[in-house]
TrEMBL record:
This protein's name: ACT domain-containing protein
Catalysed reactions, as listed in the record: L-homoserine + NADP(+) = L-aspartate 4-semialdehyde + NADPH + H(+); L-aspartate + ATP = 4-phospho-L-aspartate + ADP
Lineage of producing organism: Eukaryota, Viridiplantae, Streptophyta, Embryophyta, Tracheophyta
Keyword NAD: yes
Pathway: Amino-acid biosynthesis; L-lysine biosynthesis via DAP pathway; (S)-tetrahydrodipicolinate from L-aspartate: step 1/4; Amino-acid biosynthesis; L-methionine biosynthesis via de novo pathway; L-homoserine from L-aspartate: step 1/3; Amino-acid biosynthesis; L-threonine biosynthesis; L-threonine from L-aspartate: step 1/5; Amino-acid biosynthesis; L-methionine biosynthesis via de novo pathway; L-homoserine from L-aspartate: step 3/3
SUPFAM superfamilies: ACT-like, Carbamate kinase-like, Glyceraldehyde-3-phosphate dehydrogenase-like, C-terminal domain, NAD(P)-binding Rossmann-fold domains
Organism listed in the record: Flemingia macrophylla
Purpose of the protein: Bifunctional aspartate kinase and homoserine dehydrogenase that catalyzes the first and the third steps toward the synthesis of lysine, methionine and threonine from aspartate.
Listed cofactors: a metal cation
């Protein structure tokens, strides 16, 4: 057995090292645990299997069978070998659980359940140490080598954490066996830490040996819990199988051939359909324990996936999958269903916490998909990272498929080396970057234009001064001679990268990205795109980083029918509309790709502005109480329209205020759509109305007001349909007022007029000011100063109206308040008329409106629209359908 490289001296040399890299007594356990070298000759298989008989998890192979296999009984050997060879391929699924997934006993149990419920034929589970344990283990080393005696109590805490977890989960013989092993390990570690304490130093292999215990314990506990679920399960100390070669730069390269050979051997001794293996740890070809470095468990799982030619490798973590952008920065970030290996690679490289890029390398070889899933939300299907051919054409018509994700890296500086002396001079770039290498700075992006006049590159801010000094010194002569004009530092920069495999050969992606940045008023300092076209990198000012990320994300990810809404006037109609939006929003998004976001709600006194992605309509009333601020219409409009990257804005005016209506032209001019049930803008001077309509057409915005006539009834749209298709209106006659309809439908059987008006008001049919409903607003204004006053004065009219009613009844007629537009004579009349009891206008009930269009096409029989023409629900419904009409004009599917 090869001896480890140790740097211990003096008395420690006298320890026995022949079993491993550490000076611990030769207990039977340490022999087992550290006899990592599987022997090369067939005979030694027997020897090594005997010595490897572990008391937990692993069953010794039958010695008879092993002996038979080495005594040359060839037929038997063949049968045995065949049976025990790993059935590689599709049948295996690999699962990897990180530290948080096995952070305490209930989580370990949850993991055991997930494994138990996976119906794959064969399963390999790779497990990290319980959360915080690896840090605790590193801390032990740190304490011991800095001669801090508290390593002893820190080791006790490690013991306590694992023994209490085991006691929670296990019982009987399993618990006893595990605890005895744990105590043995702790006592071995204590001896080793003591040695480190005395030496004041720990070699890398000692450190790796100590820290790897977290995985040994979690794998044993998990395998015993799974066994408790009634499933046969073996645990694997991956150091017996995974062989890696250290490289420079804190990385290791797996030796697949040797690992595969050892795995075959391991499996022949431990055939099982369910194996729990330690993540993170491995051994060198010389059998010295080592680790796959930080985040190495994902790498372990990927290597195991490759060794087993697994069907898939699932990395269980605590997020639902890979997001299209950092969800802490972009509220709209979505979970990506699929990513190609290349995309995942680029995303992780560019700062997204996806997977370490090296995790992908082992699985690419065999095209094994990696799935990222949330252990705390198993209903989420996660993100599948696989070969692009498997991704297929799902969403292929969707532009967002071209750019999958966006990432940012902050705290960077640009270095710009500039001067005419660089043009056509070979070796300048080499001189620049070798100077950078000499100060060990990491170059994150490079850009050089074809004029060769300047080379610009990004490095971490903390390294930039050293880089600049190195360059000043290397190019001292060139700078003095003027061949180089400057070595400039541009501090406070961030990188924004857009990643997507389908960007390759797709025209317009760059243009869209830059257009989004330009519209958000963000200056781009430098750009880089490799010819692979998987990644476009731009450098922006640090303070613009989040704004830039949101701008580009919205451009690619929000559907073009995402609409930012500002609701003005959350009174009866406005609040009913908000309730309807709340109920329908998810369905609209799901079925029609219409994404409505209420970004602000303003009343006459208070306003509520959203934080980022829209107000939570489940509790807008409470939020208004908690977070409402003093109403300020200008600020409100600016917030709703300008403070985000949603492609469309609509203001919905649910007031009856003419001052609010006087703003429509300005809003339309700014590109804001307007929808309203407020009649003020349409019922003033005709010129005003025509001006708004003209402006709206010029600015390519929409102005919809269906609810201003007959509430939700399709009156404006019917009229428009008739006119736009070339029909000619001859007359429109009808009962246009829900309030008056209600009043005259119920003003009978000896009832008093004022009482019926109050009833209409209570039912929500009247205007905020009921004088607007009753004919002769002028008359009303003459007799009263306010709406309340008017209601008090109203009984004075009871007598007069009772007489009119009586007269009509005596003649077998009813009273109806109608409006008539006679187009041919250019005449409009609004008056109280009497109709025979069998006339359609006499048949109405409740707040019904009835409108009869007599046109050239509908000359003999008018086109009639009839139904409730007032009330909160039907009015809000009318506004809502205008909002959806807007969405469909903007491109929503029908
Ligand atoms: N009721 C119905 O059946 C129909 C109504 N309509 C129209 O719907 C509109 C709303 O009616 P309704 O909901 O019943 O009225 P409400 O009086 O219940 O609500 C009006 C809302 O407008 C707000 N408001 C008033 N002035 C301003 C201002 N300057 N700035 C911001 N907010 C303001 C009020 O805020 P605050 O509470 O803070 O004062 C209140 O929230 C009216 O234009 C009406 O003509 C149209 C068709 C049918
Ligand atoms: N107050 C109005 C409501 C609809 O416009 C009416 O009564 O019709
Ligand atoms: Na209508």
């Amino acid at each position: 057995m090869a001896l480890p490289m140790l740097s211990f001296g003096g008395s420690l040399i006298s320890h026995s090292f022949n079993r491993g890299p550490f000076p611990i007594p030769n207990t039977p356990h340490s022999v087992r645990r550290n006899n990592l070298l599987p022997c090369q000759c067939p005979l030694s298989l027997c020897a090594s299997s005997r010595s490897l008989s572990l008391p937990w998890g692993r069953e010794s192979p039958s010695s008879t069978r092993i002996r038979a296999s080495i005594t040359g009984v060839s037929v038997e050997v063949a049968v045995e070998e065949k049976e025990k060879r790993i059935p590689k391929g599709e049948t295996w699924s690999v699962h990897k659980f990180g530290g948080t997934c096995v952070g305490n006993s209930s989580r370990i149990k949850n993991v055991a359940d997930i494994i138990t419920n996976d119906d794959s034929e064969r399963k390999l589970v790779v497990v990290s140490a319980m959360s915080k344990v690896t840090d605790m283990m590193y801390d032990l080393i740190h304490k011991a080598q800095s001669r801090d005696e508290s390593y002893v109590s820190a080791l006790d805490a490690v013991l306590e954490k694992h023994s209490s977890t085991a006691e929670d989960l296990l019982g009987g013989q399993d618990l006893a066996t595990f605890l005895s092993q744990l105590h043995q390990d702790i006592s071995d570690l204590k001896a080793m830490l003591e040695a480190i304490y005395i030496a004041g130093h720990a070699t890398e292999s000692f450190t790796d040996f100590v820290v790897g215990h977290g995985e040994l314990w979690s794998a044993q506990i998990l395998s015993l819990v799974i066994k408790k679920n009634g499933i046969d399960c073996k645990w694997m100390d991956a150091r017996e199988v995974l062989v890696v070669n250290p490289t420079r730069s804190e990385q290791v390269d797996p030796d697949y051939l040797e690992s595969e050979r050892r795995l075959e051997k391991w499996y022949s001794l431990n055939p099982s359909k369910l194996i729990v293996a330690t993540g993170f740890i491995a051994s060198t070809p010389q059998n010295i324990p080592t680790t796959l470095k930080r985040d190495g468990s994902d790498f372990s799982a990927a290597i195991m996936g490759a060794l087993f030619r697994a069907r898939q490798v699932t990395i269980w973590t605590d997020v639902d999958g890979v997001y299209s952008a950092d969800p802490r920065k972009v509220g709209d970030a979505v979970i990506l269903k699929t990513l190609s290996y290349q995309e995942a690679w680029e995303m992780s490289y560019f700062g997204a916490n996806v997977l370490h890029p090296r995790t992908i390398v082992p699985v690419i070889r065999y095209g094994i998909p990696i799935i990222i899933r949330n252990v705390f939300n198993i209903s989420a299907s996660g993100t599948k990272i696989c070969h692009p051919s498997i991704i297929g054409d799902e969403d292929s018509l969707n532009f967002k498929n071209y750019v999958k994700g966006f990432t940012t890296i902050d705290n960077l500086a640009l270095v710009n080396v500039e001067g005419t002396g660089m043009t056509g001079v070979p070796g300048t770039a080499s001189a620049i970057f070798s100077a950078v290498k000499d100060v060990a700075a990491n170059v994150i992006m490079i850009s050089q234009a074809s004029s060769e006049h300047s080379v610009c590159f990004a490095v971490p801010e903390k390294e930039v001064q050293e880089v600049a000094q190195a360059l000043q010194s290397v190019f001292h002569g060139a700078l003095n001679a003027g061949r180089l004009s400057q070595v400039a530092i541009i501090s406070n920069c961030s990188i924004l990268a857009a990643v997507g495999q389908k960007m390759e050969s797709t025209p317009g992606v760059c243009a869209t990205l830059f257009d989004a940045l330009a519209k958000a008023n963000i200056n781009v300092r430098a750009v880089a795109q490799g010819c692979s076209e998987y990644n476009i990198t731009v450098v922006v000012k640090r303070e613009d980083s989040i704004k830039a990320l949101r701008a580009v994300h919205s451009r690619f990810y929000l559907s073009k029918t995402t609409i930012a809404m500002g609701i003005i006037g959350p009174g009866l109609i406005g609040s009913t509309l908000l309730d309807q939006l709340r109920h329908q929003a998810a369905n609209l998004k799901e079925e029609f790709n219409i994404d409505l976001r209420v970004m602000g709600i303003i009343g006459s006194k208070l306003m509520l502005l959203d934080d980022d992605t829209g107000i939570n309509l489940d509790k807008w009333r409470e939020l208004r109480e908690e977070k409402g601020e003093v109403a300020n219409l200008e600020k409100f409009v600016q917030h709703v329209h300008e403070n985000h990257f949603i492609p469309n804005t609509v203001l919905v005016d649910c007031t009856a205020d003419s001052v609010i209506a006087s703003n429509y032209d300005e809003w339309l001019r700014k590109g804001i759509h307007v929808i309203t049930p407020n009649k003020k803008a349409n019922s003033g001077p005709l010129n005003e109305y025509l001006r708004i309509r003209a402006l709206q057409r010029q600015s390519y915005t929409h102005y919809f007001y269906e609810a201003t006539v007959g509430a939700g009834l399709p009156i404006i749209s019917t009229l428009r349909g008739l006119l736009e298709t070339g029909d000619r209106i001859l007359q429109i006659e009808g009962i246009f007022s829900g309030t008056l309809s209600y009043i005259f439908n119920n003003f009978k059987d000896g009832r008093v007029f004022s009482e019926v008006v109050s009833e209409a008001r209570d039912a929500g049919y009247t205007e905020p000011d009921p004088r607007d409903d009753l004919s002769g607003t002028d008359v009303a204004r003459k007799v009263s100063a306010s709406a309340q006053d008017f209601m008090q004065q109203l009984p004075k009219f009871d007598h007069e109206l009772s007489e009119k009613l009586q007269d009509a009844e005596n003649a077998g007629e009813v009273l109806r308040y109608v409006g008539v537009v006679e187009v041919t004579n250019q005449k409009g009349v609004v008056e109280l008329r009497r109709y025979k009891k069998d006339h359609p206008f006499a048949q109405l009930s409740g707040s019904d409106n009835i409108i009869a269009f007599t046109t050239r096409r509908y000359r003999n029989q008018p086109l009639i629209v009839r139904g409730p023409g007032a009330g909160a629900h039907v009015t809000a419904g009318g506004i809502f359908s205008d909002i959806l009409r807007l969405a469909s004009y903007l491109g929503a599917p029908s």
